[in-house]
Automatic annotation (TrEMBL):
Family from the record: Belongs to the class-III pyridoxal-phosphate-dependent aminotransferase family.
Name of this chain's protein: Aminotransferase, class III
PANTHER family noted in UniProt: ACETYLORNITHINE AMINOTRANSFERASE, MITOCHONDRIAL (PTHR11986:SF79), AMINOTRANSFERASE CLASS III (PTHR11986)
Gene Ontology MF terms: identical protein binding; pyridoxal phosphate binding; transaminase activity
Domain of life: Bacteria
InterPro entries on file: Aminotrans_3 (IPR005814), Aminotrans_3_PPA_site (IPR049704), Class-III_PLP-dep_AT (IPR050103), PyrdxlP-dep_Trfase (IPR015424), PyrdxlP-dep_Trfase_major (IPR015421), PyrdxlP-dep_Trfase_small (IPR015422)
Taxonomic placement: Bacteria, Pseudomonadati, Pseudomonadota, Gammaproteobacteria, Pseudomonadales
Organism name: Pseudomonas fluorescens (strain ATCC BAA-477 / NRRL B-23932 / Pf-5)
Cofactor annotation: pyridoxal 5'-phosphate
UniProt KW keywords: Aminotransferase, Pyridoxal phosphate, Transferase
PROSITE patterns: AA_TRANSFER_CLASS_3
């Protein structure tokens, strides 16, 4: 008899935290042809409304990820549906080489709303960050003797293109495919002396997220961001803020820089600007406005359909009381998460507006996310010991209370599983 066959595999904490789906039938859709580049759980989503999603088995989920904060107004908001339907009837994309009304209106609206001088429209946050880097380097050629060095913070995320990955440094997830591009260096976040020491004659810009998302929702301190702005002014280099995640109301103000009372030369926007459709923007101010015709282009840049979404999102966010309500609900979310963290002996709760992270007492974030999914709650884990909460900006207090109940049940599941693990129980 082969004794190895009798040995049972020891289940992981994540497996122990959930029981198999009740009455789980064979998946209705095959994933065989999809490249396995992203690890996804089993449900196949078919419908969404506000803070809620439904899968193909008609199970409901409360969504506190909202497509990584892209769905600023929640799932299928009526204003976005109406704007897209109306625009799709008349014009989808005349091509980036021609003007369309939405392109002109959105560029104008973004500049007026953010006190910027120029805007360029793109399709993803990665593209906006890469365009920001190109713009800074163009400025370096014109005004700093060809300086091209960009300093970023360790553990930053500026997207998944090669320049964006190089900006984030070798530790960035997905940065495993050979050497990065030259001209980027990283220093610890919230460390002004380290930043000061890293600047040299080759430096053209400092590029930062006001709140580091993938690092575990770590806000810049006001002292730090104001200090960085001052340093840039004193040394005559550019400040680039990557507000792809933190901008467009996510932190309770239209731009996160407003919270800090700073003013960047270049800003990258994305995610929430399209409310769930692919739309991003590059904003430039004053001396940084130095691109000329032919230096940026892309098939979908300024696409009429996508820009109609951007205008609908801005209309909602700029409605009287909308951001005030988001700030109010954000404070409630932060306060109640802190209470829950203390009840379950977890760590720190940090963030702004409706952008929060909770550090855990151990590296159980993936297990909590999995247990939460079984409780019908969608969360993300940017770090092994950190949960991230990015609900719709239109989330209600009722949604927040329901999320807290489901999260508490997920914590209990994981705690029970941890006890089983300690006792060495196999299931
Ligand atoms: N910058 C930040 C701060 C991000 O969080 C992300 C994506 O998560 C990006 C850039 C890249 O955006 P996208 O995924 O739209 O390319």
């Amino acid at each position: 008899m082969n004794l190895f066959n009798l040995r049972r595999t020891v289940p992981s904490l994540e497996d122990l935290a959930v029981e198999p789906y009740a009455n789980a039938s064979a998946p209705a859709f095959s994933n065989e042809c999809l490249m396995p580049s992203v690890q996804r759980p089993q449900p196949v989503f078919v419908r969404g409304q506000g803070s809620w999603l439904w899968d193909s088995e008609d199970r409901t989920y409360l969504d506190f990820t909202q497509a990584g904060a892209a769905n600023s107004l929640g799932h299928s908001p009526s204003v976005l549906v109406a704007a897209l339907a109306e625009q799709a009837q008349s014009l989808i994309n005349p091509g980036s080489g021609f003007y369309n009304r939405g392109m002109l209106k959105l560029a104008d609206r973004l500049c007026r709303s953010t006190d910027s001088d120029q805007a360029y429209l793109l399709s993803s946050g990665t593209e906006a960050c890469e365009a920001a880097i190109k713009l800074a380097r163009k400025w370096g050629q014109l005004h700093r003797g060809g300086a091209a060095g960009i300093i970023t913070a360790s553990q930053s995320c500026h997207g998944r293109g090669f320049a964006a990955l190089s900006a984030a440094g070798s530790g960035a997830p997905g940065n495993r495919f050979g050497p990065g591009l030259p001209g980027f260096s990283q220093v610890p976040f919230n460390d002004l002396p380290a930043l000061h020491a890293a600047v040299d004659a080759q430096t053209v810009a400092i590029m930062l997220e006001p709140i580091q998302s993938e690092a575990g929702v770590i806000p810049a301190t006001e002292h730090y961001l104001k200090g960085v702005e001052r340093l840039c002014r004193e040394l005559g280099i550019l400040l680039i803020l990557d507000e792809v995640q933190a901008g467009i109301g996510r932190c309770g103000t239209l731009l996160a820089e407003q919270l800090y009372g700073v003013r960047a030369d270049i800003i990258a926007l994305g995610k929430g600007l399209g409310g769930g459709v692919p739309l991003a923007a590059l904003l430039a101010r004053g001396k940084a406005c130095c691109f000329e015709a032919g230096e940026l282009d892309g098939t979908h840049h300024g696409n009429a359909l996508m820009t109609s979404a951007g205008l609908a999102v801005l209309d909602s966010l700029q409605e009287h009381g909308f951001l005030q309500q988001a700030r109010h609900n954000g404070e409630y979310l932060g306060q109640e998460l802190t209470r829950l963290a203390s009840r379950y002996a977890q760590g720190q709760v940090r963030g702004q507006g409706l952008f929060w992270g909770m550090t855990l007492a151990d590296e159980s974030a993936d297990a909590v996310v999995k247990a939460a999914l079984h409780e019908g709650l969608l969360l993300s884990a940017p770090q092994p010991d950190c949960l991230r909460f990015t609900p719709a900006l239109s989330v209600s207090k009722g949604n927040i209370d329901e999320m807290l109940l489901r999260l508490a049940r997920a914590f209990s599941r994981v705690r029970t599983a941890q006890l089983h693990c300690r006792k060495g129980v196999a299931v």
